[in-house]
Amino acid sequence: MFHAQLLTLFPEFFDAPLACSIPRRAIEAGIASVDCVQIRDFATDKHRRVDDNPYGGGPGMVMKPEPVVAAIRHARKTQAETLVVLLTPSGDRFDQTTARKYAGLPGITLVCGRYEGIDERVTEHVDAQLSVGEFVLSGGEPAAMCVLDAVIRLLPGALGDADSAQQDSHGEDGLLDWPHYTRPEEFEGRRVPDVLLSGNHAAIEAWRRDQARTRSEQRKKAQMHGDTERG
To answer: What is the Cα–Cα distance from 50 to 3, expressed in whole angstroms?
Structure first.
């Protein structure tokens, strides 16, 4: 069984996402287990403080290292083989290749930051640092749920169709997904492409690959154009 631990100040954030769709089914089937660990439980002062003012001044608060590191040590004690991952904007970009790598592990521990960030000394106690994109979130919880969802759906038996994970968007071949259609054949003047109605599976597969390649190339060009404008 794949075991995930979520170190967070807001365990309730994960209640709804883990109670629906693929994560719920995977948990109920015994394919995965998920534990939410309250970082505040590892604070040792009487006020159970988990944050403090940043050295050097500046706005906001910084998460203290003591309770976070204590929570990480607890996670490692719970599962010695867990991979501890810190969600942070300065981390490596999370992608499908990383998701597949994590799905092959016994488990992962995702550390969710809050406020202005976590004391830098915590990074010495993690195995990896991940970012889900170049934007600002209120905390690491949404990012952690993205990572967890991407990993759980890759676990054997998590999806009803074993081929679904292989055909998902952003596979290891670097291509986006192709366009999808279902009934009706015509909607507001737009028809389903004839090739999808042909029953010719070789032609359909070729069309899908061509569409995926075209979409991917268009996305790369758009990103390059955006980078040029920002430069």
So the answer is: 26
- CATH architecture of the domain 175-230 equals Orthogonal Bundle (1.10)
Instruction: Extract long-range pairs of 51-60: CB within 8 Å, 24+ residues apart.
Output: 51/114, 51/115, 54/116, 58/116, 59/116, 60/115, 60/116
| Rounded Cα gap, residues 136 and 72, in angstroms | 24
Residue 158's φ and ψ, nearest 5 degrees, are: -70, -35
Tens-place pLDDT, residues 206-216: 999 999 999 99
Strand 128-131 and strand 83-93: the pairing is parallel
Q: Where in the chain is the domain with CATH 3.40.1280.10?
A: 2-152
Indicate if 116 belongs to the active site.
yes
* Catalytic choice (35, 66, 116, 177): 116
Q: Look at the pTM and tell me if it is higher than 0.85.
A: yes
Residue 65 is a catalytic residue: no
Q: What is the CATH number of domain 2-152?
A: 3.40.1280.10
Distance of CA 177 to the CA centre of its chain: 18
Give the span between the Cα atoms of 28 and 46, in whole angstroms.
38
How far is residue 156 from each of residues 1, 26, 166, 216, 223, measured CA to CA in Å?
A: 10, 10, 12, 28, 34
89 tagged catalytic: yes
Q: Exactly one of 17, 51, 67, 153 is catalytic; which is it?
A: 153
Tens digits of per-residue pLDDT, 175-190? 889 999 999 999 999 9
Residue 172: active-site member? no
Spatial distance between the Cα atoms of 2 and 26, rounded to a whole number of angstroms: 10
